[in-house]
Specification:
mainly alpha, about 220 residues, disordered C terminus, 2 domains, homodimer, Arc Repressor Mutant, subunit A, about 0% strand, 10 helices, disordered N terminus
C-alpha cells in the first residue's frame, strides 16, 4: 500500500499542487520516457520547486510510485454483477481500457519497458500492481462467499493471472488487446480458479506483494 | 516460421560464419542492448564484412529474428510424459530455465524491453514466440488425442497462456521466476484448457502469428 506524505490529500493549494505534479509526471513520461524523466523537469513543468517534490515524495521513484498508485485506484471501478465470470470480464475490459487510455498509455509503457531491465522501475510498477490487485480481490472474496470457488482460493493470484495475460498481449506479444483478449483472459482466470489451480500456498518469496525496496533514484 | 538464406545450414565455413554471427549478436545485445546493437558492431565482432550480413539476412532485424528463432528451437525439448499436466510442467520449467540462462538472459531481456515500445523489436520477439509456440503445440495435440482436452482446444493458445504467465512474472512483475512459478503457470494453463476456456475461435486479427511486417531497421 502507498503511504507517506504524498498520499495525504488536503484540499486547496496542496491538492492543486499535487494534481499539477501528477499531471507533470505523466506528461514527462509520455514525452521523455522513464529514463528521461527527472525531478527537475517535473518541478519546472508543475511550476513548483524541486525542494517541494523531495519534501513530499523523497525521491523521483517515490513520486512515480505515488502517481502509479493513484492511477491504479482512480481508473478501475470494482465490478459487482453477482457472478465471478461477469465480474472478471468487466474487470478485464476495464484493465484493457485503462492501459490503452491515450492520456496515460505512453507513460505507462515507458515504465513497463524500463521495468524489464531496471529494478527501480520494476519496484514502481510492482507497487502499482499491488494496489490494483489489492483493490480487486473483493471480486474473488465475494465469489468465494457465494460458493463459486474452492476454499483456499488465492484471490490475489486470480487477479494477477488475468492481469498477466492482458499485459503479456499488450506489452510483449504486442497486440493492442481488444475485448476478445479481455474476455479470454477473464475466462482463463475464472476456469483456473474454479478448478482449484489458484489455491493459496505458502510461498518462499512473495515477490509481487512483499518485495523489499529496490535501489532508488534520488 | 523463419525462412530465407539465413536458415540454410550447409557445413564448413558457412556454418562457422553463421555460428560466429549468432554468438556476436547475443554478445552485442548483452553488452549494448537492442538499441546499441548494429550490423557494423556484429560484423566486427564476428570477423566478417557487413556485406556478408546484409547478403544473408537483409537487415539487422532479419538477423535478430533468425537468432531468436534458432534460440527458440535449440533450447527447449518437447516433453512427452504421456499426460498433459506433466508435459506442461516440464515445458514451463524449460521456459523458465531458458529465459534465465545467463548466456542469453540479458540479450533476451533487451529485446523484450525494446518490444514494449518499438514495433521492429516486437516483430523480432513475435517471430521468436511464434517458433516456440508452434514447436510446443505437439504437447496439446497429443493430449487432445488422448481425450484429455475438449474438442476444439486451441493448442497455440494453451502454450501462449503458459508462456504469458511466466514472462509476466519475469519481465513485468519482476520476480525471477522459479519452479513454483513454472508449476503454477502449467497448472493454470492445464486447468483452463481442460475447462474449455481455450477453445479455438475465429479471431478478427490474429496478431501473434500472422501480424504483417512492422518497420524494420536496415
Amino acid at each position: 500500500m502507498v503511504e507517506g506524505p504524498g498520499t495525504v490529500r488536503p484540499g486547496g493549494r496542496t491538492a492543486r499542487t499535487r494534481a499539477a505534479v501528477m499531471r507533470a509526471v505523466i506528461d514527462e513520461l509520455t514525452e521523455h520516457g522513464y529514463r528521461g524523466t527527472t525531478v527537475e523537469r517535473v518541478a519546472a513543468r508543475a511550476g513548483i520547486s524541486k525542494t517541494t517534490i523531495y519534501r513530499r515524495w523523497r525521491s523521483l521513484d517515490g513520486l512515480l510510485a505515488d502517481v502509479m498508485a493513484e492511477l491504479a485506484q482512480q481508473r478501475i471501478p470494482v465490478p459487482d454483477a453477482g457472478d465471478l465470470g461477469s465480474d472478471l470480464r468487466a474487470l478485464a475490459r476495464s484493465v484493457v481500457a485503462s492501459v490503452r487510455d491515450p492520456a496515460i498509455s505512453a507513460a505507462f509503457a515507458s515504465i513497463v519497458a524500463a521495468a524489464v531491465q531496471d529494478p527501480a522501475a520494476r519496484d514502481v510498477l510492482s507497487r502499482f500492481l499491488a494496489v490494483r490487485v489489492a483493490a480487486m480481490t473483493t471480486i474473488i472474496d465475494r465469489a468465494a462467499r457465494r460458493g463459486e470457488l474452492p476454499p483456499g482460493t488465492d484471490a490475489a493470484a486470480v487477479i494477477e493471472t488475468l492481469t498477466a495475460l492482458i499485459y503479456y498481449r499488450l506489452f510483449i506479444a504486442g497486440d493492442p488487446p481488444g475485448q476478445d483478449v479481455a474476455d479470454g483472459a477473464a475466462a482463463i482466470a475464472a476456469a483456473a480458479a474454479r478448478a482449484g489451480a489458484l489455491a493459496r500456498k505458502p510461498r518462499s518469496g512473495d515477490g509481487l506483494r512483499t518485495r523489499p525496496g529496490s535501489p532508488r533514484r534520488a
